[in-house]
Amino acid sequence: MVKELTGGYKIKYQSNGLDKDPIEIDFTPPFRRIDMVEELNKIAGLNINPEDLSSAEANQYLKDVCKKFDIKCSRPETTTRLLDKLEGHFLEVTLPNAYTELNDPVVQRQRFADQLKDRQSGDDEAMALDEAFCRALEYGLSPTGGWGLGVDRLCMLLTDSQNIKEVLLFPAMKPQDEPSAKATLGA
Question: Locate the Aminoacyl-transfer RNA synthetases class-II family profile domain: which residues (predicted)?
Fold first, then answer.
């Protein structure tokens, strides 16, 4: 799509405002793929064991790492929230593109169960167990890719727009000072 619209795979985007130099985003396939925990370990010099993320020791280790790098995580300091903060600090700045969706029903059910514990600990952002979704995965969801970017944000990238209102096909909010349709029609 990018090549069709722009004539190439690389675009420039004024992500930091019109007065700053644009960044270049390269959509040339194949896309770089990383494992989040492996990449965190490599970039930050950590020793996170991906097989032991649900233990109290893993949670404490992540708390200590966040403290070491002065990364703030509001309560509750669940493993999921701590990993998210670490990912945002170390990895997000290096990843302008996409991610892979988890489609293993056993692993997904366990992650939902872990998030349910987080939810019971006070994490309002943690997901509840979605048994229907897990059952659908069991029937066989083919490998899928995720795109953490809505169509509106993609349009912003491809048109180098600074404000989402520039690309929306409908007004985000009706102006308060316009006369009502009833008054305009003489009713």
Answer: 1-175
